[in-house]
Amino acid sequence: MKTIPKKLIKLNPKSSGRNSSGKITVRHQGGREKRFLRHIDWKRNLALTARVESIQYDPNRTSDIALLVYVSGIKDYILAPQGLKVGDTVISSEAAEIKVGNCLPLKNIPIGIEIHNLEIVPGKGAQMVRSAGNTATVQSKEGNVVVVKLPSGEIRQFDGTCKATIGALSNPHHKEEILGKAGRKRHMGVRPTVRGVAQDPRSHPHGGGEGRSGIGMKSPKSPWGKRTLGKRTRDRKKYSNKLIIKRRYVK
Question: Which parts of the chain have pLDDT scores under 50?
């Protein structure tokens, strides 16, 4: 097992889907194994050369993580992109080379380059494109505005000073993984889900009827009677609406 610096980990507390008064507010959670959170450097503010000491598995996320050792002796984790190997050197700088693992502002990244760990607000740290195998692409630049195509297909404007990391994220076959047994899902903290049609009408709108009678309505509903298909939930006045050039569900 690869060593994990103690300063970079802390216990990930369990809530099992319960609020402060002990009531279940999020269903189908509970019973997972003990986990430790690894500290991930989302901001990449340290403008020093760092060597990749190891590539590790992180139970809290889908992609692998890389342990960096900076020339000053500081250690920290980043998300590991595809192609990053032990012994490679990376840096976060405005004048950094366009190389896998390097971090630099969007305005300094050439058009057509694949990126991940994308900031929305300059200096806040990466918030987008952080899942296994994901990648975004720089499409165009005009002044300090950079247009990026996101993994969902959405095309959106970003401030040119927002940072991003070069490359696509590791573990691209994560979605193809077969768990193998129900018990593994329980170890991950996911409790069973009972189908609505298998319940009685008091417990779920889909319940009741003799034999296999279907849901008995035009569109499915949640256990609380709300329609679950076709209703948009995005805020019509959301601040970022003006930054979106093309929505992800427009063909």
Answer: none
